[in-house]
Write a structure and sequence with these properties.
Elements: H1 9-29, E1 42-45, E2 61-69, E3 79-87, H2 89-98, H3 104-123, H4 133-151, H5 159-169, E4 174-177
Parallel strand pairs: 1-3, 2-4
Antiparallel strand pairs: 2-3
The protein binds zinc ion.
Length: about 180
């Protein structure tokens, strides 16, 4: 079996910075209050922490929805959704090799911002996690447009190359599923 490429430790540092920045941008954009805050609703994992079933070929990320249960209030536990953003190191690194203008920080910032927008839209019931192919395609276009809208004014270096890139690779962008 071929060994898939994984992020190195210096790349993981950039990914963590991108997660922090994406979370702040998306929370501010949607004016999420402390109780609505994204942090307890998702987790971002890279190849080092993924099980074989969470690794896929093609997309840059896969979002898996789990059902959690709050246990803070006895007798009144409330079901909630928890999302795991599984970054696909190998696909992201391959894209960086294919497209020399792409840089890891702006590219991963784009990917994570995009996935967080999906999650906010699921949690606000603006979009159902279970959707038909045509609904999903429309949602992808909306989420790409929203990602662009949020990141455009931020002026992160080399972001233009990312905007150019995703316009061409839109179809392979991500995968959304419930656990098998
Ligand atoms: Zn998407």
């Amino acid at each position: 079996m071929m060994t898939m490429q994984c992020f190195q430790s210096d790349q993981i540092v950039l990914i963590n910075d991108a997660v922090a920045m994406a979370e702040e941008l998306v929370s501010n954009h949607y004016k999420l209050s402390a109780t609505q805050w994204l942090r307890r609703k998702y987790d971002v994992r890279t190849a080092a922490d993924l099980s074989p079933g969470e690794i896929i070929t093609g997309p840059f990320a896969q979002v898996i929805r789990y059902e959690g249960r709050k246990t803070t209030v006895a007798l009144n536990s409330e079901a909630f959704d928890f999302y795991k953003i599984c970054l696909q190191d190998h696909a992201i690194l391959e894209a960086l090799e294919r497209s020399p203008a792409l840089r890891l920080f702006p590219f991963s910032l784009y990917i994570i911002t995009h996935e967080l927008i999906h999650i906010v839209r699921f949690t606000k019931f603006l979009q159902s996690f279970v959707a038909t192919d045509s609904e999903r395609l429309l949602e992808e276009i909306r989420v790409h447009d929203k990602t662009h809208e949020i990141l455009e004014p931020v002026r992160v270096p080399d972001m233009t190359a990312v905007f150019d890139f995703y316009a061409r690779w839109r179809d392979e962008f991500d995968s959304l599923r419930d656990p098998a």
